[in-house]
Amino acid sequence: MAFAVAGMCFGVILGWVLATQEAGRSQPLLPAQTPAAAPAATERQAPALDEARVRTLQSAIEKDPQNAENFTQLGNAYFDAEQWPNAIDAYERSLKLNPNDADVSTDLGVSYYYTNRTDEALAQFERSLTISPNHTKTLLNKGIVLAFGKENLQAAADEWKKVVELAPDSAEGQAARRALEGVAAAHARQGTTTQ
């Protein structure tokens, strides 16, 4: 059942990620290990790194190594190119300078997840929620990691319900609602096939 739900949720989440990739950071993540129900996603290539942007940001960091925003933007450039270890390094450096940035903290958690560091991702999301308890992108991503990384659909559903309650009309709320509908449909199907 978990893989059936994962396959449905994967489709919902993939659509949301693609729709919001240009809108900003902290987008929900895709499973670190793609379920068998969605083999087409494994063929997708990572976007190209904007090397000019990276050089400009590295130069700015050399001139002002205490500017957290420069590290954040460098992390974002690597994040956009799916270069997770480089994104992690930049986000960690940004958070050392500005530890109260929930967006950067969440992006760091997403980057951890993509490097198969599920427990670190969840711990980072908890830090994000300490900074901003109602951060819907963090809650959505936490639910995704719980569903795919921990295979704990109940805990994932609990996080997605919070997103729907906090921001029902937002993109995050809509993605959480669709994921919850996928979980409910899978439970309904399992109930009819086991009787």
Q: Secondary-structure blueprint of this entry?
A:
Blueprint: H1 2-20, H2 51-63, H3 68-80, H4 84-97, H5 102-114, H6 118-131, H7 136-149, H8 153-166, H9 171-193
Q: pLDDT under 50 segments (min length 5)?
A: 14-23, 33-41
Count of individual beta strands:
0
> Strand portion, in percent?
under 5%
Overall pLDDT, averaged?
84
- CATH C-level category: Mainly Alpha
CATH topology value: Serine Threonine Protein Phosphatase 5, Tetratricopeptide repeat
CATH superfamily: Tetratricopeptide repeat domain
Instruction: Count structural domains.
Output: 1
**Structural class designation:** mainly alpha
Q: For the CA atoms, what is the radius of gyration? A: 17 Å
Helix content bin: over 70%
Task: Report what the structure shows.
This protein is mostly helical. The protein has a single domain, classed as Serine Threonine Protein Phosphatase 5, Tetratricopeptide repeat. It contains 9 helices and no strands. Helix 1 runs antiparallel to helix 9, helix 6 runs antiparallel to helix 7 (about 135-150) and helix 7 (about 135-150) runs antiparallel to helix 8 (about 155-165). The longest helix has 23 residues, at about 170-195. Residues about 15-25 and about 35-40 have low confidence and may be disordered.
In short:
The chain has 195 residues and is mainly α.
List keywords for this structure.
195 residues; elongated; mainly alpha; 9 helices; 70% helix; Serine Threonine Protein Phosphatase 5, Tetratricopeptide repeat
